[in-house]
Amino acid sequence: MSDTSPPSAPSPSGRSASTLPRESWTGQVGFILAAIGSAVGLGNIWRFPGVAYENGGGAFLIPYLVALLTAGIPILFLDYAIGHRFRGSAPAAFRRLGGRFGRWAESIGWFQVAICFVIATYYTAIIAWALSYFVFSIDLRWGDDPVGFLTGEYLQVGEPGLSFEFVPGVLIPLVIVWLVAIAVLAGGVAKGIERVNVIAIPLLVVGFLALVIRALFLDGASTGLDALFTPHWEALADPGVWVAAYSQIFFSLSIAFGIMLTYSSYRRRRSNLTGPGLVIAFANSSFEVLAGIGVFATLGFFAFQQGIGFDQLENLTGVGLSFMTFPAIVSQMPGGPVFGMLFFGALAIAGFTSLISILQVVSAAVQEKASISPRAAALWVGGVCAVISVLLFSTATGLLALDVIDSWTNNVGVVLSAIVVSIVVLWVYRRGRELTYHLNALSTFKVGRTWFVFVAVVAPVVLSYMLVARVIELIVEGYADMPGWYLGVFGWGTFLFLVVAALIGTLIKWRRSPDDFTPWPPLTAELAGRTETRS
């Protein structure tokens, strides 16, 4: 459905008459489901439970909640305000926000687009693995050695380097995922992305609930739940625990790298922003807690079957948890094949709904820069991403490249993006009052000075600490025993690509200028005067 305001300039939608009609969600429910689909991804299932266990158990929920309220939700609102007020892809929105210095701000948007481009290339590979393991669950194909099966028979992992030795078991599902993703993108916002999420999110919730209920009735489930929720209060004195909480919230909510900004730009002009934002944030956190219950109840069963203490279990997060530990558990439980299909099916669905939101950031930017249709953008963006994805991640070195690229993209690129956005938008361009006004003019839940302090002071300070600490660690200690040259190429090389891509994207000429634009609703006389002075 398109936003079709009458051809007057400026229109209440914030468009001039010369601009093409902008796509929009069919309604609030469609937007909420799509945003939840973006937020609920692989990290909710395979990252949160292990992070909570390793950082104080039940006590971790305190810094987690603090991080949600002081950084997660405030930055989410900031993304919504920028995207909805300036009604464009990340580059267009930042350019419009920057006024006469908008070209400098536009580069922030292209940096976020580049982040999403990189993430899409390897995120698809993990979804392909999940689809393969969904099929493998039927006959427990990994046998008695899930670790050896994953790294040997399935991924055929080689030495660090660049290999063109393709692995058919990965290549085929990877191509299938890309074909489906491109088809969804080509359908547009309402007929593609929204329609998929309306089906996928209820299916994900029902399927995962079934998995959790089954896990709760396994022998030893209570041991796993005790391990997860028993509070270790002394952990609250450890700064690393608080950093872990902010990190989990930050990466889980899909904030600060263009996704929620782009999604909010498709909302109709008279849309409640903060109310749905709260629903999305707490829905995401609720799913993380649900995932923790299901995963740790299952791990408790595994410890019981092995006759070992829970603290002796290994591979409790990430790829190790999903593709090494869980297959071993599935092999030992009654009705294991069904449980495995539920788990890997949930992993694939959660990953796919996040993937299409990531791709939409890139597609929207290309659509607007080149003034082409969603279908054309989907073919170009999806085609280029798919080729790179296949070349890098369906080979014998795919797992190693994925691990390194993911670490640098998220821990350096995404965190830096959030810091720059907060500083540039709120301190350099001083748009805090305007964005506060925009949120409050349209929303039921009002924001004020507290929100500004969180997004302009608390979040940048915490994230800067995270970034500096992580960069020092990567420089001094390296990463995962990888050779220095490999980290230079796939790690720091990835970060260099983000910077260069941002510059190139900014220098390319717009087919239709995004500057002929007036935000809506209009500012009060006082705020308008302040904005004019700054511009």
UniProtKB/TrEMBL annotation:
- Where is this protein chiefly located? membrane
Which CDD domains did the record assign?
Answer: SLC6sbd_u1
Q: Name one GO cellular component term.
A: membrane
- The segment annotated Disordered runs over 1-21
- Keywords in alphabetical order, please: Membrane, Transmembrane, Transmembrane helix, Transport
Q: Which residues cross the membrane?
A: 25-46, 58-78, 110-136, 166-186, 198-221, 241-266, 278-304, 341-366, 378-402, 408-429, 450-472, 484-508
Give the location in the cell: Membrane
Q: How does it sit in the membrane?
A: Multi-pass membrane protein
Name of this chain's protein: Sodium-dependent transporter
Q: Which organism is it from?
A: Pseudoclavibacter endophyticus
Taxonomy of origin reads:
Bacteria, Bacillati, Actinomycetota, Actinomycetes, Micrococcales
